[in-house]
Specification:
heterotrimer; A alpha/beta (about 250); B mainly alpha (about 425); C alpha+beta (about 400); A: about 250 residues; 6-stranded mixed sheet; 9 helices; 10 strands; C: alpha+beta; 4-stranded antiparallel sheet
Chain lengths: ~250, ~425, ~400
């Protein structure tokens, strides 16, 4: 447990199920994340780990069970959905920056349109964020003009600009060239130390060992194992987990 | 060290080919290409021989200059022609400013337009018209210059405005939003100027020629654009009722020929909407717009489908609602990418407006038909057809070239 | 834990309906449909009122009345004393006829110019490009009228142009030689049946021979089933056997099954052979030339869409240029070409509605005549629309089916 973690639960999932047509992706996930907690979610592809974190800001609708984020239940209530989206920031594997807007405008769009900030205030905040990400000099370029690592940092800044309480990372380094992975991980590390609640889907086991409070292992739509990183990596309980760890650490 | 310097100094080998090399490579290289070339040359010889013999010996071209004004504006009253010039002036100013501000493609095409206008400024159509005059007399030559100036002063003003606006645009680049606004407003203003009001109003039934053709095509594209975007969004909707109604409309309209839609506009609109009489030109505008909207919707849908899902998701994740994410994220990207398709649709529409002749309007094609039936120009069918074919061709070809350039341009800077 | 969720969450069953996305979705759709139906209802009411005031109705019984007009080109027997329904049917047949022939001609021309557009020969390439640019950038209506005018300037019937003593052309029609069945035809058909049966038998026999041979040389674990050999056998024997028997039959028939009937010039007119009217031919030329320019572009871009990497890979494997084209490029280009090609076919069929410009009696022109004669705009209009829609929708349904089939194969 790190110094920031509290005992207040911020995300509560109970028996969450999800189907894509007939395919049962999530088979009853029950777990709780505490305020300030850093959780790393790993597992083979197709195990439902991405789908799981996407249900938390309702990019995917769960079909059974309840998800409560910061006291707001995710349901068909329009107001709740909008509230959640403002409280939960998300970073995607493919960055998903808006290619027709400059990096700065990518960041200011949400604050201006949703938080109704003035243009000046939004730009001030955005520049501060870019400074924090170490790419202040890229503000007026377009996403296609900067490197992948820089794009992902702009994307993180874009998510942070909404001042979320929770950050979701969906394989943030998988689409990056090896030499750019560390610059993104550095930013995420810094973010983790600032006390942000983070759910990170990743294959970066070094990052997990170093930063995470908890590692969850998904397979075939269920949480096979969850433990503190030290236990998880050094003393895995399940065969499936052992196999996965040995395969991942091989390269 | 020395070696490195050497490597940098090596020049690529040059192949001195020359014209003979080019010929060998492009026309005669394998044996069958030589045969093909001969066949093609023979073909060209016969085509050109036939065409040129006809054009210079049999054809009588005086039907064209004599009716130039008719081709251009049809039965539009001659004493109101100044209004058309006003419209052209508005467009020239806007075009000149845009060329100055945006450069690039816009500038290139403005130069093309400008040079065409310049050519018209100096071609002496009047000579052909007055073949009986004595070209040698000095007095006539003087008269001719005056005559040319007399009929060209509007055009001269137009060219001057175009050039002036161009230089103005180059100086003041912050005009951008104003120019865009100007383009949007220019259309209703032009319609208003052309129609006028009060005693001197020119009823739409008096609009004709190339003027009518252009108005119908531009109207069709401009008005069908918002409609088409709306239909495309509806067809992409997750709500089944909205999706199916829109799909039904689009597929029905695309499934029937334009002529049936025009005919519907002509015959059925008065039955369906009996409250007030809508004149023929307006009805055709409505029909063309309804037709064009379905095709526009499909073009826009193509652009929407090309937007990756991640863009929608990122917009949602940032907290934008449906309308906001469409307005700020999806549509700006989608519409940009469908510009070439829309230009293509405009070309198709420009050609298709010739069908309004069948309904009874006097567009460019209608003017041609009416000239042919005039006993003065008996038997001059082919000349007239070739002339208007040339007009249609020049417009369509220029636009398709422009669209190719835009497409290449969009491909390069993808932001 | 469960406790916590209950206290923290707002009660999910009590969402006010104006915020519940499920309710909102349904509500929104109902409102939308109401709007659409309201609009349709107003138009329908206006139409009924308008019809009533003019003493008209929507009944279709007028279709049994006598048409009273002639039709210039008809594939079936038709006289002006026939019913409106019959005349409409003639129009439909005429549209189908000109569309099918047009599609055939446009495909041949389009393929030719599309491939010529990619020729390595500079001259050929540019002639093709010129052809394409000219004919797709001039309105079709103008082209049809142009060809009709050109046709009209040909010599009159009594001065018909004669080509090879077989084809006659004048300002009203073209005459081609035709094949006519004779009394010998029916006995030749008997030979054809025999040929078919023999061909089938020969396939089975040959397949049996292949099977035996294969069984002799078979290695352990080889799959050898009889039906495996049928397709190979068919490739070798079916067509030759059929052709040989059919040709023998031709000579053994009591009389040659067909005779070639040449058009002949008699007095003031040409008789015999197949006659195509000037209207039909000028419409056909207009439609096929116009559409062929678009098809050529479809073919060209389809072939160019096969990536350069595929060509390079094929060359790397050692295939020749011709083999690359036949085995690698075309199989991949065809699925790309077919959907836009179909939409060009549909365009051609829809554009055939310009037949009136050449005076050809297609579905639309006859429909218009019926409308003005019977004063039945709306029913006839609906009939025209339904006809074109059926044509378009069946074709695009077939196209969708084909696309999903191709995509399934790709996976």
């Amino acid at each position: 447990m790190n110094e920031n973690t509290t005992n207040d639960p911020i995300i509560i999932c109970e028996d969450v199920h999800k189907w894509f047509d007939d395919f049962h992706v999530l088979k009853g996930i029950t777990t709780t994340f505490k305020k300030g907690e850093r959780a790393v979610i790993c597992g083979p592809s197709g195990s439902g780990k991405s789908t799981f974190i996407r249900t938390i800001n309702r990019l995917e609708e769960h079909q059974r069970g309840t998800i409560i984020v910061d006291g707001i239940e995710l349901s068909n209530d329009l107001r709740n959905i909008n509230l959640i989206r403002q409280e939960v920031g998300m970073v995607f594997q493919q960055f998903n920056l808006f290619p027709h807007l400059s990096n700065l405008k990518n960041i200011t769009l949400g604050p201006m349109k949703v938080r109704k900030l003035s243009k000046r205030k939004a730009e001030e905040e955005a520049l501060a964020l870019l400074e924090r990400m170490g790419i202040a000099d890229q503000a007026y370029k377009y996403p296609s003009e900067v490197s992948g690592g820089q794009q992902q940092r702009v994307a993180i800044a874009r998510a942070l600009a909404m001042e979320p309480k929770i950050m979701l990372f969906d394989e943030p380094t998988s689409a990056l060239d090896p030499e750019m992975i560390s610059e993104v991980l550095d930013v995420m590390r810094e973010l983790a130390h600032s006390g942000m609640t983070m759910l990170v889907v990743t294959h970066e086991m070094g990052f997990a060992r170093e930063v995470a409070d908890r590692v969850m292992f998904f397979d075939e739509g269920v949480v096979v194992e969850e433990a503190a990183p030290a236990d998880f990596f050094d003393n895995p309980q399940h065969d499936r987990t052992k196999l996965f760890i040995s395969q991942t650490l091989q390269h | 060290m020395e070696e490195q310097v050497d490597i940098q100094q090596i020049k690529p080998p040059t192949y001195a080919k020359g014209p003979v090399g080019w010929l060998r490579e492009n026309l005669f290289s394998p044996w069958y290409n030589a045969i093909l070339t001969c066949v093609a040359l023979l073909f060209l010889y016969f085509v050109f021989k036939g065409l040129l013999t006809w054009a210079f010996t049999e054809a009588e071209w005086n039907v064209i200059p004599a009716n130039l004004q008719l081709f251009a504006i049809g039965p539009y009253p001659r004493d109101q022609v100044y209004r058309i010039w006003i419209c052209l002036y508005i467009l020239s100013v806007l075009l000149g400013l845009s060329a100055g501000v945006w450069r690039g493609i816009v500038q290139r095409w403005t130069i093309v337009v400008g040079s065409i206008l310049l050519v018209f400024l100096v071609i002496p159509f009047e000579i052909v018209q007055r073949e009986d005059s004595h070209l040698v007399s000095i007095e006539f030559r003087f008269n001719l210059i005056w005559l040319i100036f007399e009929s060209r002063r509007w055009l001269l003003g137009d060219v001057a405005l175009l050039i002036g606006a161009f230089f103005l645009g180059q100086r003041i680049t912050r005009l951008r939003p104003w120019i865009l606004g100007g383009w949007v407003l220019s259309f209703p203003i032009i319609m208003f100027v052309l129609h006028g009001f009060g005693e001197n109003a020119v009823q739409t039934s008096m609009w004709g020629g190339l003027l009518l053709t252009l108005i119908l095509a531009v109207f069709g594209i401009v008005v069908s654009f918002p409609l088409g975007v709306f239909l495309a969004l509806c067809r992409q909707s997750k709500l089944p009722a909205i999706k199916w109604v829109s799909t039904f409309y689009i597929e029905t309209v695309r499934g029937v020929p334009l002529i049936t839609i025009l005919f519907m506009g002509s015959v059925l609109i008065p039955i369906f909407i009996p409250y007030f009489t809508i004149d023929q030109v307006l009805r055709m505008m409505v029909a063309i717009t309804l037709f064009s909207a379905a095709y526009m919707a499909e073009n826009v849908r193509g652009g929407l489908q090309a937007i990756p899902r991640g863009q929608h998701e990122a917009a949602q994740a940032v907290g934008l609602n449906y309308v906001q994410s469409m307005m700020f994220i999806v549509l700006p990207q989608a519409l940009r990418s469908v510009i070439p398709a829309i230009v293509g649709q405009f070309i198709a529409l420009f050609k298709d407006t010739s069908l309004v002749y069948i309904i009874g309007l006097i567009d460019l094609f209608g003017v041609a038909k009416s000239i042919i039936t005039n006993p003065v120009w008996l038997g001059r069918h082919v000349e007239v057809y070739i002339f208007i074919a040339l007009i249609y061709f020049s417009f369509c070809y220029a636009m398709s070239k422009a669209s190719q350039e835009i497409e290449a341009d969009l491909g390069v800077g993808k932001h | 834990m469960y406790h916590a969720s209950n206290t923290m969450a707002q009660n999910s069953t009590n969402i006010p309906f104006w915020r519940d996305t499920r309710v909102l979705k349904v509500l929104f759709q109902i409102l939308f449909l109401l709007g659409v139906f309201l609009l349709a209802g107003i138009l329908y009411a206006n139409m009924l009122k308008g019809l009533e005031s003019r003493g008209l109705n929507l009944k279709l019984d007028f279709l049994r009345n006598e048409a009273g007009f002639d039709v210039s080109d008809s594939v079936v027997e038709y006289a002006s004393s026939d019913t409106y329904l019959k005349s409409f049917y003639v129009g439909v047949l005429n549209t189908v006829r000109v569309s099918l022939v047009g599609i055939l001609c446009a495909t041949v021309l389009g393929l030719f110019f599309g491939i010529a557009r990619l020729s390595t020969n500079w001259l050929v390439r540019n002639i093709a490009a010129t052809y394409i640019e000219i004919f797709r950038n001039v309105p079709l209506l103008l082209q049809i009228v142009f060809w009709f005018t050109v046709f009209g300037s040909l010599p009159a019937a009594n001065n018909s142009i004669e080509l090879f003593n077989a084809v006659y052309i004048n300002n009203r029609s073209i005459h081609f030689p035709s094949l006519q069945q004779t009394a010998g035809f029916s006995s030749w058909v008997g030979y054809l049946y025999a040929a078919a049966i023999l061909a089938i038998i020969s396939v089975f026999v040959l397949a049996l021979i292949f099977y035996r041979k294969h069984a002799e040389r078979m290695k352990e674990g080889d799959d050898n089933r009889y039906f495996m050999h049928i397709s190979r056998a068919a490739k070798w024997s079916a067509v030759p056997v059929f052709l040989i028997v059919a040709i023998i039959g031709w000579f053994f028939a009591p009389e040659s099954p067909f005779v070639l009937v040449r058009p002949e010039f008699q007095r003031f007119n040409v008789v015999g052979g197949i006659r195509f009217s000037a209207s039909f031919i000028s419409l056909l030329i207009g439609l096929s030339v116009y559409t062929s320019a678009f098809i050529a572009e479809v073919v060209r871009s389809g072939i160019q869409a096969v990536s350069k990497g595929q060509r390079e890979a094929a060359r790397a494997v050692g295939l020749s240029t011709g083999q690359t084209l036949r085995l690698i490029v075309l199989p991949q280009a065809v699925p790309i070409i077919i959907p836009p090609l179909t939409s060009q076919y549909l365009n051609l069929a829809k554009n055939s509605s310009l037949a009136a410009a050449a005076g050809y009696d297609d579905l639309f022109r006859i429909g218009k005549t019926i409308m003005t004669q019977a004063g039945k705009e709306i029913p006839v209009f609906a009939m025209i629309m339904v006809n074109y829609l059926t044509m378009s929708l069946t074709t695009s349904a077939a196209m969708n089916w084909y696309n999903s089939w191709v995509n399934r194969i790709k996976r």
